[in-house]
Amino acid sequence: MNKSNKRALPVLLILTVILTTVLSACSTGGKASSGTEDGKVEIQFWNSFAGDSSKPLEAAIAKYNESQDKIFVKVLSNQDPQKQLTAISGGNPPDLVLTQWNNIGPWSAAGAVKPLKEFIDKDGFDTAQIIPAALDRMKVKDDIYGFPISMSMANKLFYNKQALEAAGLTAPPETLEQMMDYAKKLTIKDDKGNITQMGFIPDYPWIDNVFWPIIFNGSWDDGNGKLTANQPANVKSIEYQARFYQEFGQEGIDKFKSGMGKMETPQDPILTGKLGMMIGWENWYVDNRGEGKEIGVAPFPYPEAQPELKNAGMVSPIAMFIPAKAKYQDEAWEVMKYLLSEDVQIDYSIEYGSIPVLLKALDNPKLTENEKTKPLWDYYESAKSPNLKGFPNSIYINEYLQALNEETEKALKGQQSAQQAMDIVVEKMQPVADKNK
Amino acid sequence: MDQRSLGKRIAPHLILILFGLMFLAPFAWLLLTTFKSEEEIFVIPVQWFPSELIWDNYLNAVSMIPFVQYTMNTVIIALLSVAGVVVISPLVAYGFSRIDFKGRNVLFIFMLSTLMLPMQVTMIPLYVMFNNLGMLDSYWPLVLSAWFGTGIAYNVFMIRQFFNGIPYELTESARIDGASEFRIYSQIVLPLAKPALLTIGLFTFLNAWSDFQGPLIYLNNQDSWTLSIGLKQFIRENSVAWGPLMAAATLFTVPIILMYFFVQKKFIEGISITGMK
Amino acid sequence: MSSLQANTGIKSRERKRLLIGLLFISPWIFGFLVFQLYPIIMSLYYSFTEYNLFNAPEWVGLSNYMEMTKDAKMYQSLYNTIFITIFGFFPQLIYALGIALLLNQSVKGLSIYRTIYFLPTLVPAVASSLLWMWLLNAQYGLINQALGAIGLPEPNWLLDANWTKPSLIFMGFWGTGTTTIMYLAALQEVPKMYYEAASIDGASRWRKFWHITLPAISPMTFFLIIMGLIGSFQYFSQGYVFADSSGQAIGGPSNSILFYAIYLFQNAFVFLKMGYASAMAWLLFVVVLILTLVVFRSSGKWVFYGGDK
């Protein structure tokens, strides 16, 4: 050792000392949940809501915390799916998680989600009280992995009243064939051939690979592991959408899209009438619907030849689940049950502006006669429709949806036929499905 | 001849202003937008100037999230990160630049190679590690990653380039005089590399300031969140509070602009000192 | 006898240098062993397994690597990435140097200019992307209005698969602030006396730039190229934000902006194929390492350090 080493050494020593203090100082953080001093069990409840959209949930939980003295639920918002995934995989799972329904499939199939059968059996919890289409989204191969806390639905047609009036159309279209006619009448071009108003854009605001096949009574598997995305109903649903592009032209539509105004802003095309009609979700434009407002609401049109498909629609619930490695699973189940009780469901759906997941709540006068929830009244009613469906949950759901998306896009752009598109998807995904049988 | 020299003096300004306007556009747009009402933000075709100045967006921005607290948290993380980085990185850089030891180049490439693995695949093992160390829900995963994470390779490489540019005669004479390596490092080389240190300090600060992924993953409690997470609170499903979001983004950006302005001034002073040698 | 002594002298001096060297770089060694080694080794291990992030990884040997050779989307994402590296990164590097040269003159108000040129780098993406959507808007965008005015075709920058990558590259020019600043720092380091000497010899501006400036800043260029290569191959956020804010799915129209790192991310966290994603990561690692070594090998010819003996 020479002089220089002696000089360098202290610096490095100091560094090491700082580090070890740092390391020891923060060993207190960490663990997701713990018992509190007053004998209550503290459990962590993560949700992915940002900003004040977590308020309804926080309010419900605050009531729960007051109502009993065994469990204290700590609500942490803004824990987005990416983080949920990292924490659960990284060995630090919360006790209860609120997430998008399509995470239930992959996460439970991968073993990260606690199956709820034992809890359901133990308490004799009646799963038949949950809206079937919403509950189905919580199942993978018939096992229940979570419960929906609220439900979203796309089963209506929104239309700009003025635009329809201006085109001499007195009532919204009832069948898909009528809708096509309406779309032609509502589409206006300027003298240069640029589209300045459109009746309907089938892939606005996004390509929907679930909604459209449901309207045509399509499906994605037969329940026994055989994929059915290339059956006639699904293919027809894509052909129908593609017809809009054939009629009005890909380039023209794309150009119009870029200039028609941004969704959910004052320049929103359905509000300004630049867009005549669009798919209607219950939680969109709540303040702009109904009497004296810009937007009219009607049941989404059905194929003329198949009137039995009236009132079809897609459900996409928000899911609650208990991670398989959560520390306080019994307590989490208690909280889940509480959130599924009728009063809580009603309050929550009023505050959050969604549809409750309990069948009996759909008829409760607190909802159906409440002026505050008026824009949702016809949604409550249609939530009972037997034609509501959703996409089957599985470990490969996101890969399947992605493949559908890519091939549908090509079909809409006319690069391949709808049948080709769906054949490619099934060819690609069937081996994946077989592997995960 | 006179005209030409006048042109020569004005031409650089003209070009600088022309390009400057282009570079100014994003921030100018942001700033102007904050004074617009919701109706004006998305008007088609684009409208640059608000028809009247509205301050509501700022009021909403600071009331919708705990702005002061998030700023404090962000500053703490950023400063802690900078403090470690400016001590550690030049030390390592000196070893790789000025001391000719066996295996140096191999080790150097090895260090650089740690940057080549995308973080997406190391993220979860890293999380597992910080979990095992009991550091989740604290600032340490963020700060320690700034000090010792793969970013160290970037900083070291950059300072090494600066060190390599310092003439050998400067250090050789000290070495002949019997000065220790650490003395040469701390008294001759380090002061000359002030611009480099300022640069990595600045970049470290900016990275910590705008990092979203790290705080999101490691911080659970709302009290410990940073500004970048705060910005996301304005973006809710189906409804983005555009006006307040833009105001918050402005408040987020102004401090780092000011900091940058003063640091780059210093940075140039630092450089001119080097230039005197 | 004496040569032997000299030998041991050299050896002990070598050993001493090794020791001092290691001592200086020990913070990195410490950091590497404690914070980096475990994640790196784990990701290498995952690349030989089927791992869905929750269940224990299952050893599958080389099958992830084999699968990659048949994955058309992997090739597409690699193509997109190489495209953005060649037509994005390198032009932007030259552009940044140009701006730095501009900012390196002694004109008044230079610190203001310098701040302005750095500004776009500081504006959060959530705000600047909105502006971009406006500028690139097919119907009302400033850019297309300008193109239309001079009779050029007006592409649909955001939705036409042929134009999304050029749009991203175009936007990238605004993000060159960091590179510019580093070039600026390097330019300031160039000793003035070189230029003075050259002026006396009557060298033209171009000659001075070519024979003095470029070699003098070559260490910085070297650094920027290495880092740029590494960064470009992991190109992620811009592509992600771009698709998101123009209302597109990940990957954009026809997957035209599905970059390697985005596809990797998608595999890891959306499809839960961490094993496959890790294999992709290690392929990327090898490719970038080879490119880096090539640049390093060549650097002896074109990088000149002021401190060279």
Can you walk me through this structure?
The complex is a heterotrimer of chains A (437), B (277) and C (309). Chain A contains 18 helices and 13 strands. With 437 residues, chain A is of the alpha/beta class. Chain A folds into 2 domains: 194 residues, 3-Layer(aba) Sandwich (D-Maltodextrin-Binding Protein, domain 2); 131 residues, D-Maltodextrin-Binding Protein, domain 2 (3-Layer(aba) Sandwich), CATH 3.40.190.10. In chain A, strands 1, 2, 3, 4, 7, 8, 9, 10, 11, 12 and 13 form an 11-stranded mixed β-sheet that branches. A two-stranded antiparallel sheet of chain A has the order 5-6. In chain A, a hairpin with a 5-residue loop joins strand 8 and strand 9. The longest helix of chain A is centred in the first third of the chain and has 23 residues. Chain B has one domain: Orthogonal Bundle (MetI-like fold). With 309 residues, chain C is mostly helical. Chain C folds into 2 domains: 45 residues; 234 residues, MetI-like fold, CATH 1.10.3720.10. Helices cover 72% and strands 1% of the residues of chain C. A two-stranded antiparallel sheet of chain C has the order 1-2. Chains in contact: A-B, A-C, B-C. At the B-C interface, helix 1, helix 4, helix 5, helix 6 and helix 7 of B face helix 1, helix 3, helix 4, helix 5 and helix 8 of C. Chain B: InterPro entries: MetI-like (IPR000515), MetI-like_sf (IPR035906).
Describe this protein with a few key phrases.
heterotrimer; A: 437 residues; alpha/beta; D-Maltodextrin-Binding Protein, domain 2; 2 domains; 11-stranded mixed β-sheet; two-stranded antiparallel sheet; 16% strand; globular; disordered N terminus; B: 277 residues; mainly alpha; MetI-like fold; 2 strands; 75% helix; flat; disordered C terminus; signal (chain A); Carbohydrate ABC transporter substrate-binding protein, CUT1 family (chain A); SBP (chain A); Bact_solute-bd_prot1 (chain A); transmembrane helix (chain C)
